[in-house]
C-alpha cells in the first residue's frame, strides 16, 4: 500500500484503516475448508464508512486519466461502480462465464480454492483506454492477474489495481509484479 499525499490522504488515514479492520468479518472455512473469508458486507452496510472507502480507493488514481474502471464480480462491482463515478470513468464488468449478453473474450485462472474463468465483452474498452482494475480483496492474486491479462487481451492499458484489503501473507502481490497496486488495508 502506498502512502500518497493526495485528496484521499485523510480518507486513507490510520483511523479509516482501523475502522475497516474492525468492520471486516472473518468467516472461517468459506467457501471451502481452510479459507479465512474476508467478509466486507459490514463495511458496505455503514454508509459513512462506504463513502470513505470509495474516496480512499479512488484518490490515488485521480490524476491518472483513468477512462474506465473494471471490476471483478461480484463484490468488486459494489466498489468499482462508485469509484468509476468518482473518477469520471466508464465501468467494465468482469464476469463469470455465461453472464454477459454480448460476444466475450475469456481467461482461465487458478485461485486459492480451485480454478475459474473470467469474461468481458470483446468491445468493453477502446484500445486507447486507461483502465483501473478494482476488487475487494487481493488474496493469492490469481483473479486480479487474470482480469488484468483479459483486459490487455482486448488491447487496453491497465494502469494498476485498487483493493480494499490486501492479505499480504498470501503473496498476491507476486502475481501482480510490475503493476501499480493500491490498498486501503494491508496485512
Characterise this structure.
The protein contains six helices and nine strands; from the N terminus they run H-E-E-H-H-E-H-E-E-E-E-H-E-H-E. The chain is of the alpha/beta class and 187 residues long. A five-stranded parallel beta sheet has the order 4-3-7-8-9, with helices on both faces. Strand 8, helix 6 (172-175) and strand 9 form a beta-alpha-beta unit. Helix 3 (47-58) packs across helix 4 (75-87). The longest helix is centred in the middle third of the chain and has 13 residues, at 75-87.
> Largest sheet, if any?
5 strands, parallel
CATH topology of the domain at 63-186: Rossmann fold
Strand segment tally = 9
Kindly state the percentage of residues in helix. Answer: 25-40%
Strand order of the largest sheet: 4-3-7-8-9
CATH class of the domain at 63-186: Alpha Beta
> How would the global form be characterised?
globular
Rg, rounded, reads: 16 Å
Query: Which oligomerization state do the chains in this entry correspond to?
Result: single chain
Q: Gap between N and C termini, in Å?
A: 10 Å
Which residues sit in consecutive blocks of at least 5 with pLDDT less than 50?
A: 1-8
Strand composition percent: 25-35%
CATH architecture of the domain at 63-186: 3-Layer(aba) Sandwich
Output the structural class: alpha/beta
Query: Count of DSSP helices?
Result: 6
Amino acid at each position: 500500500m502506498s502512502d500518497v499525499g493526495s485528496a484521499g490522504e485523510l480518507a486513507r488515514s490510520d483511523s479509516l484503516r482501523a475502522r475497516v479492520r474492525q468492520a471486516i468479518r472473518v468467516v472461517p472455512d468459506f467457501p471451502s475448508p481452510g479459507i479465512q473469508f474476508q467478509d466486507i458486507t459490514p463495511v458496505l452496510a455503514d454508509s459513512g464508512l462506504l463513502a470513505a472507502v470509495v474516496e480512499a480507493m479512488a484518490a490515488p488514481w485521480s490524476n491518472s486519466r483513468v477512462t474506465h474502471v473494471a471490476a471483478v464480480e461480484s463484490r468488486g462491482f459494489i466498489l468499482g461502480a462508485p469509484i468509476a463515478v468518482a473518477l469520471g470513468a466508464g465501468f467494465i464488468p468482469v464476469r463469470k462465464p455465461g453472464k454477459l449478453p454480448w460476444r466475450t473474450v475469456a481467461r482461465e485462472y487458478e485461485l486459492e480454492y480451485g480454478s475459474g474463468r473470467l469474461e468481458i465483452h470483446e468491445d468493453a474498452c477502446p484500445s486507447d483506454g486507461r483502465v483501473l482494475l478494482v476488487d475487494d480483496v487481493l488474496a493469492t492474486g490469481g483473479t486480479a492477474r487474470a482480469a488484468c491479462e483479459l483486459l490487455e487481451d482486448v488491447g487496453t492499458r491497465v494502469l494498476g489495481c485498487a483493493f480494499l484489503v490486501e492479505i499480504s501473507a498470501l503473496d498476491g502481490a507476486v502475481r501482480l509484479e510490475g503493476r501499480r497496486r493500491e490498498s486501503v488495508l494491508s496485512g
